[in-house]
Amino acid sequence: MSPPSRRLQTKPVITCLKTFLISYSLIFWFTGVILLAVGVWGKVSLEAYFQLASDKSTNAPYVLIGTGAIIVIFGLFGCFATCRGSPWMLKLYAMFLILVFLAEFVAGISGFLFRHEIKAVLGDAYKDAVTNYNTTNPKSSAVDTIQRTLYCCGVNSYKDWNTTKYFKDNGVPVSCCKENAVCSVENLKDLDRARDVVYDTGCFSLVTTLMESNLGIIAGISFGIAFFQLIGVFLSCCLSRYITNNQYEMV
């Protein structure tokens, strides 16, 4: 049993650690909200780009949403464990933070290392989607969304549609039309006329640049949050050790 004087000296230390860990847990909870927001943003804004690289809708945004939800829950658990001063709860909280750190660190490294491969795959997928465009499959819908959103047309220019089967029957897709332009069938089937009513910038460079920059943002957020977990691990372990060694119960 530690002498009373020593136990009195440890009280301010434990109180200080408790304050820091509660503050950390609240910030950690907020990072979970950020991941939820990034996941929802990815689902809404980047779904068209993900569809190009997959025949089915990707689960990547849902992974971020699920991870964010778990972090929100464990952030509240961290506050509860700190207030209770339970060593086993604090150790469980620290273990969870370590797992989150490893997962986010690996995800960030993977996104950074394979960003060029992802760019190449996306570029090839976009070219294939333009070649086999038919307005009915998900990839064709993704092409329409990209052309309307980025104000572009075709792979390198609107002339790329001239080699597709769709052009022979329908001309350049309506999604290439400029705002307030008169896009009649006759205009869209004639490349010379289409030049005045459709976007002349190709989508390939815009798509790959946009995806690469967005992957960089996501990787940066993952790295930042990952290293932030280490602070929580340190605080949780220190507080658990002080409580265990000094047999101190915090209410």
From TrEMBL:
It comes from the Eukaryota. It is found in: Membrane. The keyword Glycoprotein applies. Its main location: membrane. GO terms for cellular component: plasma membrane. It holds the Pfam family Tetraspanin. InterPro entries: Tetraspanin/Peripherin (IPR018499), Tetraspanin_animals (IPR000301), Tetraspanin_CS (IPR018503), Tetraspanin_EC2_sf (IPR008952), TSN6/7_LEL (IPR048232). It is a multi-pass membrane protein. Keywords: Disulfide bond, Glycoprotein, Membrane, Transmembrane, Transmembrane helix. The chain crosses the membrane at residues 21-42, 62-80, 92-114, 215-239. The keyword Amino-acid biosynthesis does not apply. Disulfide bonds join C153-C176. May be involved in cell proliferation and cell motility. PANTHER family: TETRASPANIN, TETRASPANIN-6. Belongs to the tetraspanin (TM4SF) family. This is Tetraspanin. It comes from Hucho hucho. The lineage of its organism: Eukaryota, Metazoa, Chordata, Craniata, Vertebrata.
